[in-house]
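Why do we bother with a discrete structure alphabet at all? Because it lets us treat a fold like text: something you can write down, compare, and reason about line by line. To make this less abstract, here is a complete entry for Trypsin-like peptidase domain-containing protein. Read it the way you would read a sentence in a foreign language you are learning: slowly, and without expecting to understand everything at once.
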Amino acid sequence: MKRKNKVIIILISLIIFFSGTFFILFLTEQLQSQVIDVGQPIVTYQDQDSSTDNLQHLIHKAQKSVVQINVETDYSERSGSGFLYNSRGDIVTNAHVIEDATTIQVTMSNAETYPAAIVGIGEEKDIAVIRVPQLINYQPIELEATENYLPGAEILAVGSPLGFQNTVSVGIISGVDRSFDINGYIYENVYQISANITHGNSGGPLIDRQTGKVIGINSAGIEESDIAFSIPIPAIIDQITDWSTSITNSQLTFPTRVNNIPLNTNELLEEATYLIHYFIDSLAINDYINAYTLLGSTLQNEMDYPSFRSNYLHLINLALLNNEIVDSTGETVLINSTIEFQDEQNRNEKKSFNILFTIGYENDQVKVLQIEAD
């Protein structure tokens, strides 16, 4: 009897063991085959460096299509901004920037300068279109021609305040449907923005920080405040398109063709310093093609693009520490620049090196004529 009871106990134990093992295996297989929904996490993480990189790329891309506009009249000189909006070389700006102009000069982000002709100019609306035939097939900036934005939208204002080319202000749309008159121009239902606008910003683009599209034309600002105004693109897109498509290059009248060479050494020094900053910024953002276009023809003949790119490809986190003017002849400028960087293979160590730039004119355009690195 006792022996029979032991057999029963052993059988029951085996049944329990195999049943438990089977159940565990079955449960494991089911869990592996299912997607477990954990719901919305309480804590989210954002890569700040990635966000910063995206903003830098957006700004760098936009700056290529933003121009500085220098105007002379019979009585004064003024400066403003504009942006390339189609492949015809047409640039949108404010009417008050170019009114009564005897000469109009457009300077690109790479310091190239061209004369411009008036395509159309508003009498009541503060908008205008000018054209630079040399910019045909240049990449324009994309417009948001249909959507009207609401308060709170994050924006960038790009322009040349006080002559400082390609300056960026960050803010939001702080109000909509603002209407008023300034100097004979009627502003209806315009955006109020918190980005700072001052002399030289007029005509520059208001950019949606999320999409990179132009949503307005920066037109007026209140001094020493965070109140400025921008004309929405949907309100003027039909007018600027009509102007652009109704005139051919043979019908253009240039107020006066401009000699692009600066009248004094100080202007060349300013353009040379700006060009070096733009050159280093292009390398820092990995835009090697744009940096290569800043080189003069002699340098490009000595070094093809793949070779140029390979010189800088392993460098990361480039930063321009300082510029020192070594010499200036009136036709060229020698500037010694100190560059800080990290090597791709050793990100923990910051290094620096010096570059001696020779900056001068080639075909009336400021170019990097020579580079000597230590």
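What the structure line is telling us, in plain words: The chain has a mean pLDDT of 84. The longest helix spans residues 2-33.
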